[in-house]
Known about the structure:
By secondary structure, this protein is an alpha/beta fold. Helix content is 43%, strand content 16%.
Amino acid sequence: MHILFLTDNFPPEVNAPASRTYEHCKEWVALGHDVTVITCAPNFPKGQVFPGYKNKLHQKEFIDGILVIRVWSYITENAGFTKRILDYLSFMFSGLIAGLFVKKVNIIVGTSPQFFTVCATYLLSIFKRKPWVFELRDIWPESIRTVGAMGQSRTLDMLEKLELFLYRRATRIVPVTHSFKETLIGRGIDGEKINVVTNGVDLTRFASSEKSQDLLESLYLQGKFIAGYIGTHGLAHSLDTLLDAAKILKENHPEETIHILMLGDGANKDELISRAFRDGLENVTFVDSVSKSAVVKYWSLLDVSIIHLKKSPLFKTVIPSKLFECMGMGIPVAHGVLGESANIVEREKIGLVFEPENAQALVDTLLKLKNANNLLGSYKNNALEAAKCYDRKQLAKDMLEVLEPLASE
């Protein structure tokens, strides 16, 4: 079977869509299938092309047996609605054109969160007369409203009509949460064509390890209880809550030696760094994004992982992919997201859930985790055991079971 996969994020980018696509495609190749990925020059989230790459019309490379075709797109940082739409549209057209020249395709997959990539997937399915799959990673454009990037507008209303059109036209829809499936059924989409394949973790990469002493020394974090946030610093994540918590810890609990480590990039990072400097938050350390191979060393430093999203009904349907990486590393979680992901944390007994955007609740959670060693050890063991249920290898096979019958048809 030849799978054509369209995504605007792919390694060496290290965000969740890039990791999921790469890990699935790598497994499909290992199982004997041909996989072609159409993507753009790696640039997320700063909008700067990675070293060794150029934003060219067309370039090819092989990554672990995956044929990767990179096309030109309008590149911008992950901020600003209009510029991002231009980014999405340019990749849609470039990806569509490149896809027309990929031969002997059996099935086409397009991934969100934004669905302009999926528009190209749908059009390619018409030209090639092949089935296509909508991999749904986010309820977009509703998430734009949720983070406050854009209020009520005719533009968003039109985008939502296009969104529903694509759901109806897709041969299959593969959402990453059960809540997404329920949302789509509630909006009139046939539940029979929706197959949930959650996010997971590559257990060959993310595994329990000792703290890197060299890294601890370089960051001046020896002897600290480290609570870390690793991921995008964007509007949806409301990371001011973490700085509010750091301020409370500094002023009211200086003896606890709790230090907050924040690794990643995004639209809000510069503002967060400026605020931490203004408030004199010496108990917060910022680190820029690192490569996928290097990030495991930073995960190893954490005594607790903080997962946080803005308090919104929409985010009750989301499962942050870093939750599964925490499981693989055996890191207890301070979980500031309600809904389906909170249910996983409580069901698997891998951490504590706190109210999103409530800094005092986060402080209370961190203090409880730090000062209850037995609890922390129990959560660590539970996390390692739970990770086996979310092994990316098995999840890739689960998605393949969706694709193979469609391709044979």
